[in-house]
Here is the input.
Amino acid sequence: MSHRIYLLPPWLRLWHWTNAALIIVLAVTGASLHFAGEGGYLVPFSLAAKIHDIAGVALACAYGFFVLANIVTGNWWQYVPKPPGVLARCLTQARFYAFGIFRGEPHPYPPTVEANFNALQAVVYWFIMYLVVPTVVVTGLIFFYPELAPTKIYGLDGLLPVAMLHYIAGAVVILFMVAHIYLGTTGVRPTSLFKMMITGWHEE
Ligand code: HEM
Here is the structure.
């Protein structure tokens, strides 16, 4: 008989899908802006710029909500990899994704209400949510107020490092999302984890 536990409150699911939709819009419009002028673009330049600005501000608000809600509810604790043995548990989890899963082995660290994430998820989600996404958001906001950036750095335009960081962090979020969607298919059924992100119930 399948076993179900309720893991994800509505605010988290609502934030997750709002965030995912905004990141997709930002990725498509961001690519149109970055690769403009190199032959056909996905979205015309001025429209892409407008949409990217609006979705960027919305993402900053969604991120502020995510941080506040994590503090208020105590959910931030899920993102802290808990010693001892974090590296060993990450390696066990990586080995499972690389080999064990294809041999039908059970998940080494199935989620519980107390520990929703395995160690690898905690490390990766922490890195993305508390380092990479804030980098995208802060560098994006500096583009709105370019006077915040130094005029010159080592004789180069002061906005250059901001632009590079924004691009690199944005690319990391997109690469994360591709791996994240693949790993989303590794529940008891390929659709289970996606359903969990909608209903809040985890199936085992
Ligand atoms: C279409 C795009 C996306 C899909 C289909 C998707 C799907 C999923 C699924 C199935 C899970 C549950 C897997 C698990 O951790 O057990 C999940 C959790 C999560 N996703 Fe996504 N995701 C998407 C985009 C994103 C993006 C862009 C981010 C961040 C930049 C993100 C951040 C997270 C986080 C932090 C969790 C864990 C939430 C929690 O349990 O507290 N996702 N996502």
